[in-house]
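Posting for a labmate who doesn't have an account.
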Amino acid sequence: MSRCDIKVVLLGSEHVGKTSLVLRYVNCRFNADIPYQNTVGAAFCAKTVRAGDKDFNIGIWDTAGSERYEAMTKIYYRGAHAAIICYEPSSVASWNRLRHWLQELRTVEEDCKVYLCGTKKDLLDSGYVSREVSQDIVATYSQGLCGHFLTSSKTGENVDELFQKIADDCAADLKLMKEVEDLRVQLAKDEAAYRVKNNNYCIC
């Protein structure tokens, strides 16, 4: 049986680069065609990360950004320990929509840790696009949340740092860690019972 110690959900409007962010973190690669593909419902990936002196399995749910899938994607918020809300600094529309995603999340998981993620930093750095969302606005809105990162899935800049911050914050949360340990104990018991059942099974 597999386990997911820390559940992370990605939220944000379509085409802001959520799927590219996950693929860069989990598989260390970038696919230029991904931004033009829509996620339906949610996609799942997992990776093991070390925080403190322990290894944790992070389960990442990449949710659809299209409005027509909103009723479906809400179910993936339940049980989330952390959420990354993505926006494009070059798109004020994606920033305005960010507030909606936060409100939706809070109706399902009020205590979920929230991180803001500005995507496609490489496009800003190269001058290919211009910033529409001021840094002052982002800094003000980020107050009270768990952090803000400006990332590039193409170069990998700040991607690992974002997920490591999530893992470190979760590892420092004593209540969450007790839940993780309780789940590990229960899964170990279930695995032992499963092995006993199968070892005792015979065909006569």
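Reply:
Got it, the structure tokens are right above this. The chain is about 40% helix and 20% strand.
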